[in-house]
Design goal:
It contains 32 helices and 21 strands. It is of the alpha/beta class. Strands 11-12-10-13-14-9-15 form a seven-stranded parallel β-sheet, with helices on both faces. Strands 16-21-20-17-19-18 form a six-stranded parallel β-sheet, sandwiched between helices. β13, α21 and β14 form a beta-alpha-beta unit. The C terminus is likely disordered. The site of adenosine-5'-diphosphate has 19 residues, from α17.
Length: about 900
Amino acid sequence: MHSSIEKLRKFFRLEHENGYTNTAVIGGLANVLNLWEGEARNDKLPEEIVQATSASLRAYADLDPARRLESLKVLWKQILEKVPEAGLKKQVPVKPVQRPPRLQPVPAEVEPSSVPEPEAPPAVSVAPEVPVVQGMEEKSASTPAQEQAQASQLPSNIVTPEPGPVSSQASSATPRSPRPVQGRAETRPGGVTSKRPIALNASLTVLAGVGPRHASMLTRLGLNTLGDMLYNFPHRYEDYSQLKPIRDVFYSQQVTVIGEVTMVNSRPLRGGKMTITEAVINDGTAGLRLTWFNQPWLTNTLKVGEAISVSGKVEQYLGRLVMNSPDWEPVEVENLHTNRIVPIYSLTANVTQKWLRKLMFQVVTYWAPKLTDHLPETIRQAANLPELGNALLQAHFPDSDARLQAARQRLAFDEIFFLQTGVLRQRRDWQSVPGRIFEVEEAWLEARLAALPFVLTNTQKKAVADIRADLRSGKPMNRLLQGDVGSGKTVVAALAAAMVNQSGAQAAIMAPTSILADQHFHTFQNVLTGENGALKPEQIRLLVGDTSSSEKEEIRTGLAAGEIKIVIGTHALIEDPVTFADLQYVVVDEQHRFGVEQRAALRSKGTNPHLLVMTATPIPRSLALTLYGDLDLSIMDELPPGRQTIPTHILTPQERERGYALVRSQIAGGFQAFIIYPLVEESEKSDLLAATQEHDQLQKEVFPDLKLGLLHGRMKPGEKDAVMLAFREKQYDILVSTTVVEVGVDVPNATVMLIEGANHFGLAQLHQLRGRVGRSEAQSYCLLIPDHEDAAENERLKAMAETNDGFILAERDLQQRGPGEFLGTRQAGYATSLKMASLSDIQLIEKARTQAQALFARDPELKDPENSLLAEALGRFWGGGKGDVS
Ligand code: ADP
Ligand code: MG
C-alpha cells in the first residue's frame, strides 16, 4: 500500500474521531499538503488524485463539519476509484496504478467502445461509519427540509478533479503534470475562475457514475467539462410552489397540475388508423382526464401510481374537463417538498431529466461554492449583485423566485459587462494607430453646401460636423451614422468623401445591392460633380457584379493610378482584385447586411482609412452604445422638411379592393405605387414564381390599363437596375416586387406602399419597406394586407399602424422577439454568447456599461491585481476570436 494513502487514511480517521473539527493535523489538514504531495507523487498516485486531495484539503477549513464529512467521503471515494487497492486494509504489494491524466475531453467517436464503465468502488472503510455530525441543526440557516434534502442528496460519489490550469495562487513548487491546452475553442460567458486549481476544464468522466458512454451523451448537449456544466443553465423551471389543486382548475385555463396516474390505456380509433391514449390523474382533490393521439407507447411510460406533472390548456369533452396532448413529465416526490422551484434542463437522446438534474445538483452544489468571484468586490457592491458561486447555485437550484432573479441578474450582468469591456478595448486598439489628417476650410464647405439642391437638416449638419472633426483628429474615424429611413444619410457620406478627395485621397462606398449602389452613384454624381463640383464626373465610378470586364479593367487601372477618386459598388469591390493608390475613406451602407469580414476586407485596401458605417436600423441609444461601443455615434432623428407621416392601414384580404382603389387614385394624380409580395419560401425559384404570377394576374385582371413593372431576386443585377431606372423615370405606374426593393431604394414620386402577406415580415423590414414612400412632400400611404383575417390582429402590424417612428418600432421589436434576428450578423454572433442577458433589458445594460466604463478608466489594461481574475475571465469570454470594428 502507498504510504501517502495510508497517511490520508490515518488523518481522516482522526478527523472522524474528533468530530470533523479540522484538528487531526496541527494548523489544519491543509498543512500536510506540502509534504504529502511530494510523497504522493513518489508513490506515483494518479495526478488527478493528487490534485483532488490538494483541492479538498485546502477547502476543508472553510467548511462546516457536515460539509467536511461530505468532502472527505467524496475524496475517499475518488481515491478508491482511481487507486482501488486503497480499499484494502492489509498491505499487499501492488504495482502502483497510474493512469495518464486526461487533459482534453475525448470525443465519443474516438473513445474505444470497449472501455468499461468504472465499477462501483469497494466499500469505503472510513467515512460510512461516521456517526451523525454534531451541530448541524444549529448551524443550518436554511429550512430543515432543505437541509435534509441537501444532506441526503449530497454527492456521495463526486468528482475527481483532473489537473486544471494552475492558477496564480497555486503556490506549490512541485512540478505538475502538463497543463491543458490554453485558450478554449468556444467562448464562455462569464468565465469561471478558480481560487485553487479546481480543474473546471476536467472532462466529465471524472464524475463517478459518468463513464465514457455518459460523457459522450453529455457531449451532445455541448457539455464537455465541469465548467460547461456550471454554465449549463436550465431552459426553464417548474415552480411547484405555484401549483393549483385539480379541483380549482376551470375550463380554458392554461395550467400546470400534479397528480398520481390512476388509469392509463390506449385504443385504436378510426378503424385502426390512429390510437388514442387516455389517462386519469388524481391529486386527492379531484381527477383530470388526459388524452394523447398516436402516442401508444405512453401506456408503457405512464405508470399507474406514479406522480406526473402536466401542463396545458383545460378543455371540455362531454361535460368533463380534459387536457389534450399536454406536456408532461414525471415528478420526483422529493421535489415537491424540497426544491420547490425545480430546474428543467435541455435533454438529448438517452439522457433523462432525472439523471441530468441529479448530476447537475452534484456538480453545482460541490463546485459553485468553491469558485472565487472574478468580479472585484467594488464592482459587485456598486452594482448590487450577488456573489458568483451563489448566483450559479441559485440559477440552477433556486431557493426562491427572488433569489433566482437576483442570480440571473448577476449572470446577465457578467455577459454584458464582458461584452462592453471588450468593445471598449477594441475601440482603444483602433485609436492607437494614426489616421491621416484632412482639413477643409469653412469657405470650401459653404460652397459645397450651396451647391446642394436642398438645405441640410440640423441633424445632417451635426453629422457632417462630427465627421469633419473626426477627419482632422489624427485618429482613424470609426463612426456609425444611424438615421431613420429617408433621413438623408447618403448626402452626408458624399460630403465627407469630398473632404477626403480634396487633398487627393480616394474613397470607396460599398452597398448591399446593385440597385442601391447605382442609386448612390447617381446621388454622388449629383452632389459632387456639376458646375462648381468638387470632382469631374469620370472621377466617380460604379463597380458592380455585372459591370463589363473591359470597364472593370478600366476602373482598376484608374483606381491604382489614383485618377478615379470615388468608387461605389457592391461586394464586387472586395471580390475584385481592386487596388487603390491611396484609399483613405471607406463607407459601408446598410452595414448590418455585411459580415464583419467583408467590412474588414474593404478597409484593408487602405492604410488605417477613416470608416463610416451607416444603418437605418434604429436601435435604442444605450443598446447602440453597448453593441457599437467601439464606434462613435451620430444619430439623425429628423426627416427633411415637409415630409408627412405616412398613414398606415391594415386591410383584411376581403378589403383588398379598397387598397387597389387607393392605388388607382394616386396613379391618377400622377404618382406611383409599390406592391410587395413576401418570399413564400426562402428559394429564389418560388420568389420568381410568386412575383411573376402576381404581376401577370394584376396586369390582366386588376390594372389592365396601367403599366406594371416587375422586380424579383432571380433577375440579373443589370436587369434589376434597368427596371428600377424605368420605374424612377415613370415608365411604370406600379412596381410589383419582392423584398429586393427593401433596402434604401429612393423613388420620391412613389406614394403608395401596398404590402401583401404583411404578417410574414418582421417589424424592421416593414418599416424599411414603408420608408420607400414618403420621400417627397406629397402625402404617402402604406397598406398592410395579411394573408388571412386573423393576422390583422398581428402585433407587428398594429405597431406599424400606430407609429412612424423607427426608434419606437425598434423598441417594440426588441421586446417582441429579442435582439438576435433584429440586429443582423455581427450582433447575432454576440447574442449567441449571451445566455442570460437580454439586450432589451436596458436598465441592466446601462448598469453594466457604467461599471465597464469606470473600470476601463481606472485600469484599462486590467493590470491591477484586483482585476487579474477578471482579465482571465474576459479572455475566456472573448475566446481567441479577434474582434473587428463595426
Ligand atoms: P436614407 O437616409 O434612407 O439613406 P437618402 O440618403 O436615400 O436617405 O435620402 C432620402 C431622400 O431625401 C433623397 O431623395 C434625398 O435626395 C433627399 N434628401 C436628403 N437630404 C435632404 C434635405 N436636407 N432636404 C430635402 N431632401 C433631402
Ligand atoms: Mg440609404
